[in-house]
From TrEMBL:
<dbReference type="GO" id="GO:0005829">
    <property type="term" value="C:cytosol"/>
</dbReference>
<dbReference type="GO" id="GO:0043043">
    <property type="term" value="P:peptide biosynthetic process"/>
</dbReference>
<comment type="pathway">
    <text>Protein biosynthesis; polypeptide chain elongation.</text>
</comment>
<dbReference type="InterPro" id="IPR013185">
    <property type="entry name" value="Transl_elong_KOW-like"/>
</dbReference>
<dbReference type="InterPro" id="IPR011768">
    <property type="entry name" value="Transl_elongation_fac_P"/>
</dbReference>
<dbReference type="InterPro" id="IPR020599">
    <property type="entry name" value="Transl_elong_fac_P/YeiP"/>
</dbReference>
<protein>
    <recommendedName>
        <fullName>Elongation factor P</fullName>
    </recommendedName>
</protein>
<keyword id="KW-0963">Cytoplasm</keyword>
<dbReference type="InterPro" id="IPR008991">
    <property type="entry name" value="Translation_prot_SH3-like_sf"/>
</dbReference>
<dbReference type="InterPro" id="IPR001059">
    <property type="entry name" value="Transl_elong_P/YeiP_cen"/>
</dbReference>
<dbReference type="InterPro" id="IPR015365">
    <property type="entry name" value="Elong-fact-P_C"/>
</dbReference>
<dbReference type="InterPro" id="IPR014722">
    <property type="entry name" value="Rib_uL2_dom2"/>
</dbReference>
<dbReference type="GO" id="GO:0003746">
    <property type="term" value="F:translation elongation factor activity"/>
</dbReference>
<dbReference type="Pfam" id="PF08207">
    <property type="entry name" value="EFP_N"/>
</dbReference>
<dbReference type="Pfam" id="PF09285">
    <property type="entry name" value="Elong-fact-P_C"/>
</dbReference>
<comment type="function">
    <text>Involved in peptide bond synthesis. Stimulates efficient translation and peptide-bond synthesis on native or reconstituted 70S ribosomes in vitro. Probably functions indirectly by altering the affinity of the ribosome for aminoacyl-tRNA, thus increasing their reactivity as acceptors for peptidyl transferase.</text>
</comment>
<comment type="similarity">
    <text>Belongs to the elongation factor P family.</text>
</comment>
Length: 188
């Protein structure tokens, strides 16, 4: 058990029987009032957020999450199946993947990180930068070089994003998975 004032951003606490990650924690003591902790929490199972205020000496259980490296294997509706380093299948429900779904495609070799709560995989994170191939984009307009010119491109899994005007069909591009933005042409 830890008191509320011992939790910092990035800690995971048990609240109402569910794991909540602390996104922001702020200690506040004013005048004759008791000291309080203002927090911003995100539920790791549902994705819901809330901003409760606790007394600084309220006690909560700290949750230690297990993390393992996994690679994508296949989709079996409604589960996405990954394999860990010992080739054990790790099933993750579609709604728990969030924005990761935009970049999952058959044959991808990116090493991801799965987070487990009570033995069940609850989320998967991609590496910060991934490389994908452009399956379709319009040709660049000749002479349109003023400013930062962007155009839409479609990846092999159907996801569309804005890329620089010089990108062509078949190019490998780097994507920042935190923002979903084009970073540049991949180096060979």
């Amino acid at each position: 058990m830890k008191t509320a004032q011992e939790f910092r951003a990035g800690s995971v606490m048990s609240l109402q029987g569910q794991p909540w990650i602390v996104l922001k924690a702020e200690f506040n003591k004013s005048g004759r009032n008791a000291s309080v902790m203002k927090m911003k929490l995100k539920n790791l199972l549902t994705g819901a957020t809330q901003e409760p205020v606790f007394k600084a000496d309220d006690k909560f259980d700290q949750v230690i999450l297990e993390r393992r490296q996994v690679t994508y294997s296949y989709f079996q509706d409604p589960l996405y199946v990954f394999m860990d380093e010992e080739y054990n299948p790790v099933e993750v429900e579609k709604e728990n993947l969030g924005d990761v779904l935009n970049f999952i495609e058959d044959g991808m070799t990116d090493v991801c990180e799965a987070t487990f709560y009570e033995g069940k995989a609850i989320s998967v994170e991609l590496p910060t930068t991934i490389v994908r191939t452009v399956s379709y984009t319009e040709p660049a307009v000749r002479g349109d070089t003023s400013g930062k010119v962007m155009k839409l491109a479609k990846l092999n899994n159907g996801y569309e994003l804005s890329v620089a005007a010089f990108v062509e069909i078949g190019d490998a591009i780097e994507i920042d998975t935190r923002t979903g933005e084009f970073k540049g042409r991949a180096k060979n």
